[in-house]
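Notebook, student rotation project (T.W.).
Task set for the rotation: take a protein with a known small-molecule partner, predict the structure of the complex, and write up what can be learned from the model alone. Partner molecule chosen: calcium ion. Sequence and SMILES entered below by T.W., checked by me.
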Amino acid sequence: MLVRRVLVLLMAIAVAIACSEKKGPVNPPACDCPYQGDLDGSGVLDAFDVIATIDVVANGHVDPVDPACSHIGRADCNCDCVADSADVDYLIESAFANGPRPCNPCEAGNECPRVQVALLLARR
Ligand SMILES: [Ca+2]
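Predicted structure of the complex:
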């Protein structure tokens, strides 16, 4: 009886070790863009984001990207793959005039760059 209990205990330990070995580092999400339009990452769309977007569009400042959202910069509020004056207008509407929130770059159809996709389709 004692031998049986020891065997059951050893099997439980072996299963516990096997299960713990299967746990590895958690994979980051494939696409996660929590700060689209929120260039300073404050969690709020405000004048600081508008100023930062103008700096990206007009003054050549670096457009920040989220780690799991490297295909698009935060300043591209309408997900057309370009940071331009339309994004400044879009962000002002979002922040101050109850306009729609900046786009979700993780949604289908918002992939960037789209030019390459269009070229690939044109080659077919
Ligand atoms: Ca844009």
